[in-house]
Amino acid sequence: MASIPFSRPEPLAPPPALSLARIPWVPIVLTTIALTYLALFLFVPLAAVFHEALKKGWGVYLAAIADPDAWSAIKLTLLAAVIAVPLNLVFGVAAAWAIAKFDFRGKNLLITLIDLPFSVSPVISGLIYVLIFGLQGWLGPWLAAHDLKIIFAVPGIVLATLFVTFPFVARELIPLMQAQGREEEEAAAVLGASGWQTLWRVTLPNVKWGLLYGVILCNARAMGEFGAVSVVSGHIRGLTNTLPLHIEIVYNEYQFAAAFACASLLALLALVTLALKTLVEARAHKEYSR
To answer: Given pLDDT bands bounded at 50, 70 and 90, which one contains residue 201?
Structure first.
């Protein structure tokens, strides 16, 4: 009896994948939602700030900014940023280089500590500084005996600013350095380059755009910080008020024109930061896509 040949049935072709891009109304709806959200929570408040700041004219606007207390707050804000950003730049590069390029004990602990300011409220961090350096704190009596003042003074403001801003540079560099690997640094070491030569001529040129991006974000946070600085400053007019604290004080005193005039400076800082951020991202994308 002849055997009947058995033929395996052809597998069914999978159904064509449904692409949302083929549905004409999906991009329109998503774009409308995004633009509506931006208009309600970004563009309208931003326009309101500048409208209220200039509502009484340029004379009132400039007088509010030239006020001695406002000018003192601006200078203190710049001072805190000028000290905090370079220190966090050095720390961020060192921490990112160590984490991405080396293996050592405590590596995961260091990563966790870098993320600590993101998970702790700035007000809590300010209270910790008061607990340590305040007059009734752990080091308070020793500081008072040596005529050193940290809380309710400029050093406390700088320390609080340092704490809330130190993750930004490191967090931008760590994934970038990890993605680039260690091959170039190992090749430089084989060719006889020292550690400093490897850092300056190999590592930093490869991460320059990520480094600049982290510095921009760090500076923006340093100049706009409110919670931690509010706890350690003491709100002393002309001495320990940063620009955000000065805005709160004059607003609570119903000096709305002055408050919005100073707030417009921070809004301008945000716009400049956004423009620099976009520029750096475009340059980085262009360079890495070559």
So the answer is: confident
Distance CA(232)–CA(156), nearest Å, equals 6
Q: Are 248 and 130 in contact (CB under 8 A)?
A: no
Give the mean model confidence (pLDDT) for residues 186-202.
Answer: 84
Lookup: tokens for 260: 């919005």
CA distance 23 to 17: 13
158 in Cβ contact with 84 (< 8 Å): yes
Cβ contact 161:225 at 8 Å: yes
User: What does the alpha-carbon distance between residue 96 and residue 93 come to, in Å, rounded to a whole number?
Assistant: 5
**Three-class DSSP category at 273:** helix
Q: 41: which 2 tokens? A: 């929570």
Rounded to whole angstroms, the Cα distance separating 263 from 252 reads 14
The pair of structure tokens assigned to 207 is 């991460």
The number of beta carbons lying within 10 Å of the beta carbon of residue 97 is 21
Beta-carbon count within 10 A of 149 CB: 14
Is 165 within 8 Å of 85 (Cβ atoms)? yes
pLDDT digits (tens, 9 = 90+) for 222-238: 999 999 999 999 888 88
On whether the CB atoms of residues 213 and 280 are closer than 8 A, the answer is yes
Q: How far apart are CA 204 and CA 100, in angstroms?
A: 13
Alpha helices in the chain (DSSP H): 25-38, 44-54, 58-66, 68-101, 107-114, 116-119, 122-133, 140-145, 154-165, 167-180, 183-190, 195-198, 204-206, 208-224, 227-233, 243-252, 256-288
Arithmetic mean of pLDDT, 17-28: 67
Region 199-218: what's the mean pLDDT?
A: 88
**Tokens at 101, concatenated:** 């390029």
